[in-house]
Amino acid sequence: MDFLTSKNYVNYVCQCGLLKPLTNLYFCRHCLNLRCSFCCHHEVDSHFCRNCLENIPSSEAKLRKNKCNSCFDCPSCSFSVLSARATTIQVPMTVKEKPEGEEGTTSEASSGKMVAKKMYYLACLACRYSSRDVGISDQASQNFCWPEQEYMHANRFNTILDYYQALVLHDKQVKQDEKRRKTTKQSKFQSMTDRTGLNVSAIRRQMGFDKTASKPKNKPASISPSMTEEVEELPENIFTQPINLKNITTIKQRFTQPANQPESVKHLYPQHKNLSIKRSIRCRHCEHNVIKPEYNPTSIKYRIQQFASSHVPEVRIIKCYPLMPNKSAFITLKLTNPTMNDMTITIMELPTEDEEVMMIDEMKKNFESLTVSSKSSLMRPSLIEDPRIVSCKPTAKLELPDSSFVINQRDDSAEFDDDIQVDKKDPKFVIWRKANKIAIELSITPNDLKVNDEVIVGFTMHYTYSTVPSTTAERKDSQQRHALNARVYLNVGNIVDSSNK
User: Fold this and answer.
1) Is 166 helix (H, G, I), strand (E, B) or coil?
2) Which pLDDT value is given to residue 356?
3) DSSP H or E segment with residue 107
């Protein structure tokens, strides 16, 4: 169980030099490279509530402060949603009466008869919290707008928010004016000012339109600071009065209500549920989407789905013999082909530090040339993660296989076949193969390490990748094969004490 829940034993190297598990990486079919979350744009496509599944536009979500109007989170346990519960109360029945001599006017009067009326309140089915605990009265409809909690510093928050919004708008206008003054208007026709040598401001003064000239923008009025020198003293019984921890809120409960931060459980008001988002992920190098979800919040499918686990061979550790310093041991790896084409895989050594530096310099030159060539296009490459040298260093020597091997294509019908195949043509290090899976056994020799030190081994996996054919009639048969590389680092275990063997 520790193998599944704890640290990652198999990590792949992203194009930027970071180590990530295969499930956290993406594959760009245009760049033909692995991409991590730092090498991609994260764009918000839509906002929705994951409880009522209401799809909310981005402008409306901003006005709502990214909160749902109809759903509430429990402020006590903070992981359950409050549900509307029905109850009945006895109220006097009202009768409409029409006074004599007055036409068109009616009045309501209560009769002595009592009738049952249906009312609603909010309750949590997990911790038994209800809106009645904080004094919120029952409502006549479950869709009625529940009363909001009044905050003591609400006016102060709004004043600060308005001030900074005005400040941002002022800075933006100043920058636009400076940019407008610096840029010169180029025209193929000669204007009047070019022949007379007069500018626009001089012509305005001569014509008497100087009053309409643009005036400098005034900065918004500064707000008064809220700090004070007078601090209230602590009550005298704060150190002597017994404390009941059941009536005091926890730090987590206070952080769910940052504007008020109640100290007592009696002031835990229902909080509107935060909205969730659907986001699309775009490659920073070529500006193509690698992940694009469906717009409908009820759908869990993707329009574009380019996870690395669907394009790159997956490596898993099946078995590893006890590891001792300077002694060879065998390790069994399972490789899986996730594509619909056969893959030829060759395991090679990792590049040296000098070779890594050369690779990084070449990547930077390619990106600079791409930036220069895309200046006239609308989609320009954005800032990318600066590539770096891999920080992980192997602590064991891997004995490389003497030949390449082929993994069959993925066949969904063969997943239920329990027969393990052994091909006589396979190399000696291939133990078994089943459908699109293959198991190999390699020999590793740890360095001079101490007991309980981690043994890390790495290799470069050279594999063939076939692009997906286009759906257009012109490029329908334009499937191409590429030779790609992926660097893999394995944490095979710790050094054991040889005296116990």
Assistant:
1) helix
2) 87
3) strand 107-123
* DSSP class per residue in 350-415: PP-HHHHHHHHHHHHHHHHHHHHHTSSSSS-----PPP--------EEEE--SS-EEEPPP-GGGG
Identify residue 300 by its one-letter amino acid code: I
Structure tokens, 113: 């008869």
Radius of gyration of the chain (CA): 35
pLDDT value for 378: 41
CA geometry: angle 27, 460, 430, nearest 5 deg: 105
First vs last Cα of the chain: how many Å apart?
A: 25
For residues 195 and 198, give the distance between their C-alpha atoms in angstroms, rounded to a whole number.
8
Alpha helices in 230-352 (DSSP H): 251-255
CB 489 within 8 A of CB 476: no
Look up tokens 């409880």; give the residue.
51
Q: Is 88 helix (H, G, I), strand (E, B) or coil?
A: strand
Residue ranges, the chain, pLDDT below 70: 1-8, 95-112, 144, 184-218, 228, 370-385, 414-424, 468-478, 499-501
What is the longest distance spanned by two Cα atoms in the chain? 113
Torsion of CA 343, 347, 353, 359, to 10 degrees: -20
- 427: its two tokens: 């190399």
Between CA 138 and CA 132 the distance in angstroms is 8
What pLDDT, on the 0 to 100 scale, is given for residue 211?
A: 52
How high is the pLDDT of residue 435? 84
Q: Given the structure tokens 């017994």, which residue do they identify?
A: 242
Give the Cα separation of 137 and 245 in Å (integer): 27
Contact 122, 146 (CB under 8 A): yes
Helix (H) or strand (E) holding 43: strand 40-48
Q: What is the pLDDT of residue 376?
A: 42
The span from the CA of 26 to the CA of 18, in Å, is 13
Rounded Cα gap, residues 224 and 205, in angstroms: 41
Residues 6 or more apart in contact with residue 107 via CB below 8 angstroms: 96, 97, 98, 99
Structure confidence at residue 4 (pLDDT)? 41
**CA–CA separation, 261 vs 75, rounded Å?**
11
Strand stretches in 124-204, DSSP E: none
pLDDT tens, residue by residue, 119-139: 889 999 888 889 888 888 888
pLDDT for the residue numbered 187: 56
Question: For position 217, what pLDDT does the model report?
Answer: 62
SS (H, E, C) 326-361: CCCEEEEEEEECCCCCCEEEEEECCCCHHHHHHHHH
Angle, alpha carbons 308-309-314 (nearest 5°): 115
Q: How many CB atoms lie within 10 A of CB 312?
A: 24
